């Protein structure tokens, strides 16, 4: 039993932060799936479009693997990993006290679910489908909105960890 002296007196924002996680995840997932729908409908027939000269192109790619098409024979493993990531984030979100961590985890969840939807529901079959990639930069892998969210969330989490921001929102002195 907690006494008055040991009780946490900070307001409980956990419930609201869970909604932040799901809100960010939902926004990322919606943007990712809408962009892929648009790419399949409009870009697939033409193949590619130069957006900014030789710097940015939209090119239709069916990627059964990970970045740089690594692991093309392990699509089902990427599907399982995405489910594990989603479960861990959902469980972790109930312990959050930091808006920054909620945003980072929401972006990671949305990106993971975006690519998982492709792997589950695109050809050649359930859990083995390809991911639609379309953003091409010179000398780099072709990627999509979900990939951007995953990468940005990972970078943001590293920054939060380096700055000593804990899941609870308290600064960690080290």
UniProtKB/TrEMBL annotation:
Keywords: Cell membrane, Hydrolase, Membrane, Protease, Transmembrane, Transmembrane helix
Pfam families registered for this protein in UniProt: Peptidase_A8
GO biological process, one term: proteolysis
GO molecular function terms attached to this record: aspartic-type endopeptidase activity
InterPro entries given in the database record: Peptidase_A8
Cytoplasm among keywords: no
GO cellular component, one term: membrane
TM region positions: 14-31, 66-89, 96-116, 136-162
HAMAP family recorded: LspA
Name under which the protein is recorded: Unannotated protein
Organism: freshwater metagenome
């Amino acid at each position: 039993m907690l006494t008055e002296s040991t009780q946490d007196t900070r307001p409980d924002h956990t419930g609201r932060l869970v909604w932040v996680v799901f809100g960010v995840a939902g926004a990322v997932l919606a943007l990712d799936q809408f962009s892929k729908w648009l790419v399949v409908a409009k870009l697939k027939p033409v193949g590619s479009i130069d957006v900014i000269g030789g710097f940015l192109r939209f090119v239709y790619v069916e990627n059964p693997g990970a970045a740089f098409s690594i692991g093309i024979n392990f699509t089902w493993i990427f599907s399982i990993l995405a489910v594990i990531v989603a479960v861990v984030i959902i469980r972790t979100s109930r312990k959050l006290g930091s808006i920054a961590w909620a945003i980072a985890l929401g972006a990671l969840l949305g990106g993971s679910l975006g690519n998982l939807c492709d792997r589950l529901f695109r050809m050649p079959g359930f859990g083995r489908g390809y991911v639609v990639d379309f953003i091409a930069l010179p000398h780099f892998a072709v990627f999509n909105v979900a990939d951007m969210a995953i990468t940005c969330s990972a970078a943001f989490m590293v920054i939060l960890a380096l700055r000593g921001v804990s899941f609870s929102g308290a600064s960690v002195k080290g």
